[in-house]
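Our preliminary data section would be incomplete without showing what the modeling component actually yields. Below, a chain of 330 amino acids is followed by its predicted structure, encoded as tokens that our downstream tools consume directly.
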Amino acid sequence: MHKTKNFQRLVVKMRKKGFYIPKAQQEVDWSAYTTNQINDLIDTLKFIRNEVDRVHQPREHVAVGRPPTDAGELAKAILFAELIGIPERKAEGWLILIGHHLGIENHIDDRVLGKAYQNKEVISILEKVFENNKTNNGEMCGDGTGLEGSRKENYESTKKKTNYLTSVIDSHEVVQQFDTGNKHERTAMKYLVEKIKIEIKKGLNLLMKKAKLTLDAGFVDRKLTQLIEDSGITPYIFPKKNNVITPKGYPAWGQMCKKIIENVQTWLAEYHIRSHAESFHSSFKRVFSFKRVFGVVTKRLNTTVYTQVLTRIIHNNRRKTNYHNLKTTN
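Predicted structure:
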């Protein structure tokens, strides 16, 4: 009981401004950033063509009648449309102009493109592109945010959202896993950790032994803490002021609380990697805007919203990876 009281007092102090002694902020490499911005469109067109062709080979049409639009070309078209934030009707015209740079040789009707957002083969291609272009430095963080579906939703005072995005990213802001829909963020985070755990077991994700996952107090959950620990990842979840250190059958919770008591500044230094999650969601909404309304998803069905967010995340990961590669070589 005495330890719990001391722990709760410490948690209150942890929340006070000035208690945490912050590390020096990482400087932006403006040379690498500028180069990345200048070459963004050229790099993207090459990326779309090469990465889709890497996972998809067009099938020969043997049936009678007009052949369906190739799923690979539809995936390329969606990637392009979401890159510049345009609806399907405008995308149809743009694709006539530059489609050959993407490896699109056939005309794609705007209605066909709209339906492609719920085409299972197209989604499978996009998921493979996402998985093939993830890097992970082991310093992970997670958070959830609302995704507005209209200008009204973006500015109304109630801030009631139709869709939510829960993400796990690394400190380079490369998305590792994400979930869209209406799940509570703790429920969604358990699902994402399970997926990361499977990746680690399969050896698909080369995480270091010092891999960590940092989450804010909204994710306080002993079962989640244990799941993270059992996945081979060290949990850093900011406690609430009324939390007790008793494990209650989940030893990972007690171990985490003990680390806070033993060296709170060291623990906070690790925890504050979480700021990258807020930075990612902010930049994600700012970059992928529709009619200058940040973060708006224009699709309405769960499947089409997922496809739209998946495509935008592919572009985010490509940009962030390009920047850090340029930063390393400079």
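The mean pLDDT is 87. The chain is about 55% helix and 10% strand. Preliminary results of this kind motivate Aim 1 of the renewal.
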